[in-house]
Amino acid sequence: MAGTPQASGQHDSGAAESRPSARTLVIIPTFNERDNLGAIIDRLHAALPHTHVLVVDDGSPDGTGELADKLADADELKRIHVMHRTAKNGLGAAYIAGFRWGLERDYGVLVEMDADGSHAPEQLHRLLDQIDAGYDLVLGSRYVRGGTVVNWPKHREWLSRGGNVYSRLALGVGLRDITGGYRAFRRTVLEALPLAEIESHGYCFQVDLAWRSIQAGFNVREVPITFTERERGESKMSGNIVREALLKVTQWGWQHRTARFRRRKAS
Hints:
The protein has a single domain (20-266), classed as Spore Coat Polysaccharide Biosynthesis Protein SpsA, Chain A. It is 43% helix and 16% strand. The chain contains 8 helices and 9 strands. It has helices spanning 34-47, 64-74, 91-104, 124-132, 154-171, 187-192, 202-215, 239-266, and strands spanning 24-30, 52-57, 80-84, 109-112, 137-141, 148-150, 183-186, 220-224, 226-228. The two termini are 26 Å apart. Residues 1-10 have low confidence and may be disordered.
């Protein structure tokens, strides 16, 4: 189920312990994000002071991992945690490692957020409010009513929009931003998904998890966000990631339609 609810006010103030989001972990994968990491964590804790952060660093040569350790040591409330990985194995592998870490520590909601500032921490309450309202997976969407894109080159925006249209048609889903990387999961979703089987990266990883969640019967919602192009550092997007997404989405769509046709024929 996809939709565009109205976002409510500041989420963290007076949050009841019974809410799933009372124990939220924001997972931030990093590779060479030293110039951005401190600012994004400061903004997150200014917006939602009690939210925990897990930085998953893939051995950044620019010292991002060391900076994350310093930020964690300096945080008197112990809200910042760091995972050091020795190899750059891609966004999907970093998130899966972060999901497992958070599930083992009983977080109720696990959030994906980029380190580069493209996902506004000030809008995270929009996602968490809908989790607390009963949704299982909430996607921050650039392409529903109220969603916007700021300072993105037109060729990147049209590539993204085209990828979403293709995914929507190929998979037969109503989501308008299935490739977006700002999202909140109830822990029950991640516990149910076969994380060990997921090998996708980049755009394809995001499509993969949303598609599996829908197929498993979870309730999915979209809320509008403002996506802002990074001001520092380089994008990790590559042609290989786009080609992987195109190939796998085509494969999943074909398998889905074939299976549905066989069911109809057998009935």
